[in-house]
Write a structure and sequence with these properties.
Number of domains: 1
Distance between the termini: 6 Å
Helix content: 25-40%
Structural class: alpha/beta
CATH class: Alpha Beta
Pfam families: Hist_deacetyl
Strand content: 5-15%
InterPro entries: HDACs (IPR000286), His_deacetylse_dom (IPR023801), His_deacetylse_dom_sf (IPR037138), Ureohydrolase_dom_sf (IPR023696)
GO molecular function: histone deacetylase activity
Strand order of the largest sheet: 1-4-9-8-5-6-7
Largest sheet: 7 strands, parallel
Domain Histone deacetylase: 22-309
Bound molecules: zinc ion
Protein name: Histone deacetylase
Number of helices: 10
Order of helices and strands: EHHHEEHHEHEHEEHEHEH
Amino acid sequence: MPTGLIFSETFLYHNSNSQFPHYDSPDRLLACMELLQKTTYFSLLHKPEIKEISIDSLNEVHSRNHIRKIESSKGKKGFFDPDTPFTEKSWISAFKAASSGTTMVDALLEGKIKNGFSLLRPPGHHAEGDRIMGFCLLNNIAITAKYLQIQGFKKIFILDWDVHHGNGTQEIFYRDANVFFLSVHQFPFYPMTGLPTETGEGIGIGTTQNFPLQAETEDYTYIRIFKNSIVPTIEKFSPDIILISAGFDAHKNDPLGGMRVSTQGFEELTRIILECAKYTCEGRVLSFLEGGYDLEALSDCVEAHIAVLQSFS
Ligand SMILES: [Zn+2]
């Protein structure tokens, strides 16, 4: 079965580069596509057209006020927060990105793919239910998880290995016992959340787990944590599907992150999770781009990540 790949030209509309340089530039996706198109497996990937989700589906995750803020940015330029600019058509990129995961879920349910990667922007994991922040407008992975719940998936595991803590995804599922959120991130670092003491609330206690790591952490430590802690946690939770917030800004060449992960390191982390998914959830894995700001490192990591997905498909 092929691996799914979502990419849309509409993801390039969100572009503040005409005003000032911003790390989350459309060039990120263009660099990835340029490399992917040269691979032998590119033509084998299943590339569904994005089906736009309804405002009601977005409303499962975000407040009316949050959605209205994005809609009312149509045709304007400005800032949602000091890190998060918007331009005339950013709202189109945001709604299309938010519809990527749900399109992948439909492809999964139709038996067209077993796993897939959404090469999207703007990223999503910092966006809370009622707060736009840190380059993130809509929480793409959370919207997908809610959609999966509506489609009958009982237990969903979200793994976030972006160098920044996925505060938005954590906040959205903090009281949900059926969505496990696990983050491995640099700490202390933006957004300054993600301590081991943050473990969930109410019936959600125990289904949030954080691994804050000091700057300069290398492949060896990541791989050890993945094998010794994360895989057993996934096995114990026994999810129906694994979602990955795949940021590649923990790469040693990234200009924002301070970690030392190599491209081969990310390839190995992907392999560890796909191996685990094979016997816990019949290989069902949907992955989403979050950060990653060195164009060469990002495109190499995305290519390696998709190659592993493809090899398990
Ligand atoms: Zn990040």
